[in-house]
Amino acid sequence: MEASEALSELVEGIKEAYRERQLNTEEQWPPVRGHKLINLQLVEVEKEEGFRAGLPQHGASDDKVKRLPILHGSLFRVEESKKPVRKLIVEGNTGIGKTTLCTMLAEGWAEGKILTQFDCLLLLPLRDQLVSSASSLPDLLALHHPDEIICESVTRQLKRTRGKGVLIIADGWDELSEVNRSKTSFLYNLLFGRLLPSASVLLTSRPSASAPLHNIPSVDRLVEVVGFNEENVKQYIVSEFQQFPEKASSLIQQLENNPVILSVCSVPLNCAIVCNLWHTLDQELSRTLTELYTQIVLNIILRNVKKKFPDCPISLNSFDEIPNDLQDTFWLICEFAYQCLLLDQFVFLEAELSFRLPNVGDKLLCFGLLQSARSLLPVGHGLSFHFAHLTIQEFLAALHLATLPNEEKLKVVEAHADSSRFDMVWRFMFGLASKHNVSRSDKVISLEDVLMDQFLVAKKFNKFALCRMSFETLDPSFAVRVSIMFGKDLLNSDYYSPFDCMARFYILRYVERCNNIVIRIGNCGINDRLLKELTDILSNANGKLQVRYLSLQQTKLSDKSVADLFKIASAAFTDLDHLSLYQNNFTDVMSSFIHTSCTSLTQLHLSHNPLGVSGIQLLETAVQSGAFINLELLGLSNTLTEDADVNGALLTTLLQSIASHCCRVLTLFLYDNNLGLPGLFSIKENIPLRLNEIGLRITNFTTLLHSESQYSQL
């Protein structure tokens, strides 16, 4: 058979399979497809910025990293003047819709609707053992066509053309073992190596696993699957509870008062799960992820067990209330989830389940924790099984781990503390094994204080992980231990997710006393609601917590919430010496300084805030009140009006006040303000000579003035 004929037959078989493939949705929960569930918005991050820094955690906001909307059919298309896109990475959190995107692209290609520039599309679900265990191109092609001769002929053809015209969609890089993700593996060589260098590649992954791929020279584009914002969450809830508007309103109110669970709902699948839970929940939503997933798993079990055991209790409040006939099976499933995570295994054949969970029979599937789906591969292996959600598998694995003796827990920690595969497992395990967790089981062995201390000194745990685990425990004694480890640097980091903000704020509540706290929160998902948490904590500390360094850069907080922070928690800022409110949207925040003692402040950065006339006048009032007597540096770049004359007058009076009341000021940044010649000469005539490090950029002029000597040249 001619190579071209073999390729055509392979392609036709693949297209037919993609068109006919359908997930077995019977009894499936949570739902996988549907226009309401998945909000598959894609944004591109410019390589020069995004690839260097990596994407912030989901929900973060970074104006320095430019994000551009991109259509599904344009993933591999660029302007003629730009370099062609051949290999791209699609990142997103679990449940955000990456797999759905892959199947939609494959089905759209098979129907001739999108990606028509490609002659052949190979969809590789990397979680599938048949894919992850492949060691050659014929092995993979055999999963797409049963005829060995055709596969061999196509292999020769693809090698001869170097893969030109072929698109490989590899879904789930994060679900591969570390061995298969290494540079020496067959899959790495196929996707990024020399095996088919002219083939196009779309790879999906959690950001944590794909970050090392950002710097590969052959990767041309980085794309993020964007989930729900707050408005999307509300719209979805209203749509889900159309028949019960009161229930929709109560859930929205619950989420508004629960920033942790609200941040979880930014992932569309998680939002669907929370809504499903709310249909039957007769109590408030949980505060922690551990409590939430305890409710979710118990809800799934009750929903499915009732079908087999009609006499089952109306509700399940702990895992010990599962019917006795199913107790052993449930704990076997938990152990199975744990063992599979150790093996990096997420898809199981029916025969394999029977072998690894013998004598379970029909009891296995009646929980609803495992679901069946048709293989994404045209040949594949028919039906396979997987846990309803990866996070549910991680929760069940943590539940098994929580039942082990503490000495065995510690051994697992020593072996897997730095494994990204266990990030969520540790959070759940700490929450489940906490003495403060009541919705669990008598089988769980609580963490002893001695063991918790050993966890803290395990060098493999990073500080972010410890904060998350501490929050899940809701154990004040553990929070105190973590706070001692952090000291003044508890909040000294950028790129917080909303959950990380809550976790660190929780720990801050238990800091006994700290006189030099550094709060650096920038480019992150903090909102006004979360800032109120911080305000309440600092205001209730009765001056025991003294903030030395405060930076709220690019946070998109409201003027009022920041003003409240200074007014309500004013006692915490008496020792403040560095304040940066760079690139926000503050206009009247200066009024808070009039009511706050910031006499120790040496640096104040207000650049890129539209202060305008009112803001500058309030700043001048604060200066005249003596609020900034020790100020040495003031940043006011891009803060003034569009009128050069107005700006000149504003700065003239402000500089005169600074000269009279802030005798230590040596540096003033005024870049990107429209001053013009009138404003410039006004400043030249009024500026104190000791302000010897001034930088000015004047609209319509290219002259930059950096020192006193240059003024004489005007």
What does it look like?
- The protein has 714 residues and is of the alpha/beta class.
- Among the domains are: 3-228, P-loop containing nucleotide triphosphate hydrolases (Rossmann fold); 281-395, no CATH class.
- It contains 28 helices and 18 strands.
- It has a 9-stranded mixed β-sheet with strand order 10-11-12-13-14-15-16-17-18. The protein has a 7-stranded mixed β-sheet with strand order 2-1-7-3-6-5-4. It has a two-stranded antiparallel sheet with strand order 8-9.
- β14 (603-605), α26 (612-624) and β15 form a beta-alpha-beta unit.
- It is globular and about 90 Å long.
- Residues 22-29, 31-39, 47-65 and 689-714 have low confidence and may be disordered.
Task: Name the poorly predicted regions.
Answer: 22-29, 31-39, 47-65, 689-714
How many strand segments?
A: 18
Helix vs. strand class: alpha/beta
CATH superfamily of the domain at 3-228: P-loop containing nucleotide triphosphate hydrolases
Largest sheet strand order = 10-11-12-13-14-15-16-17-18
Give me the CATH fold name of the domain at 3-228: Rossmann fold
**Rg from alpha-carbon coordinates:** 29 Å
**Rough outline:** globular
Largest sheet: 9 strands, mixed
Helical fraction equals 40-55%
**Treating each run of at least 4 consecutive H or I residues as one helix, how many helices?**
28
Mean model confidence by pLDDT = 80
CATH class of the domain at 3-228: Alpha Beta
Cα(first) to Cα(last) distance is 83 Å
- Quote the beta fraction: 5-15%
The CATH architecture of the domain at 3-228 can be named as 3-Layer(aba) Sandwich
